[in-house]
């Protein structure tokens, strides 16, 4: 499995995510109950979903490191970069959740 294949998949995921965010940009956000579309969630629910999926993502990256021979230095750096993305996403969603909560109280 090459890094090019992973990059193509990541681009596809980002494109679909951007399309869904555009489609649901004016819709009411869901804060309770099940919701399939990530773009329809509030920042609090997005943060919770990111936090619950983080261990699964880390296990996937560890498995990819061992089973797909990511032991070369560029691949290892790419894997570490991919591990930082959900953490950045979590902190961004936390910041936005707190910001929106503050705006509601004002």
From TrEMBL:
<keyword id="KW-0812">Transmembrane</keyword>
<protein>
    <recommendedName>
        <fullName>ATPase</fullName>
    </recommendedName>
</protein>
<feature type="transmembrane region" description="Helical">
    <location>
        <begin position="50"/>
        <end position="68"/>
    </location>
</feature>
<feature type="transmembrane region" description="Helical">
    <location>
        <begin position="80"/>
        <end position="97"/>
    </location>
</feature>
<feature type="transmembrane region" description="Helical">
    <location>
        <begin position="6"/>
        <end position="24"/>
    </location>
</feature>
<keyword id="KW-0472">Membrane</keyword>
<keyword id="KW-1133">Transmembrane helix</keyword>
